[in-house]
Write a structure and sequence with these properties.
The chain has 1 helix and 7 strands. It is mainly beta. It has a single domain, classed as SH3 type barrels, CATH 2.30.30.110. Strands 1, 2, 3, 4, 5, 6 and 7 form a 7-stranded antiparallel sheet that branches. Strand 4 and strand 5 form a beta hairpin.
Length: 106
C-alpha cells in the first residue's frame, strides 16, 4: 500500500456512488491494520456546493471526471481495500490542499 494509490471500491452497496477510493495515509504508519481513504465520486454527484473547489478537487480517471469527496474520508480495514488500479501521486498538490482545507492548515 502506498500513499495516493487509487483502489477500486470493493463494496457492492456503495460502488455506484463512489467507484474509487484514494489512499491518503502516510507510509510512515504502514503497520496499522487500516488505511485512511477518500472516496472519489462522479462529478454528476457533486453535493452541497455543486462545483469543484480546493476541498473537492476533480480528477480524470479512465476518461471520466470524479471529485475527491474529502469530507467523506474514513478508515477502512486493509483487508477490505479493493485492488490497486493506479496512483494519483502526480496530483499530490490538489490532494494535499484538500486535506489542508479540511484540517484547517490555512
Amino acid at each position: 500500500m502506498a500513499r495516493f494509490d487509487l483502489h477500486d471500491n470493493p463494496d457492492d452497496a456503495t460502488r455506484r456512488l463512489a467507484p474509487y477510493l484514494l489512499d491518503v495515509q502516510s507510509t510512515h504508519v504502514g503497520i496499522l491494520p487500516t488505511r485512511i481513504v477518500i472516496p472519489l465520486r462522479p462529478t454528476s454527484h457533486l453535493g452541497f456546493s455543486g462545483r469543484p473547489s480546493d476541498l473537492l478537487p476533480v480528477f480524470e480517471i479512465s476518461g471520466e471526471s470524479y471529485f475527491l469527496d474529502t469530507p467523506a474520508m474514513s478508515a477502512v480495514p486493509l483487508s477490505a481495500l479493493g485492488r490497486r488500479i493506479d496512483s494519483l501521486s502526480d496530483q499530490r498538490e490538489p490532494i494535499l490542499s484538500a486535506l489542508d482545507r479540511i484540517f484547517g492548515a490555512y
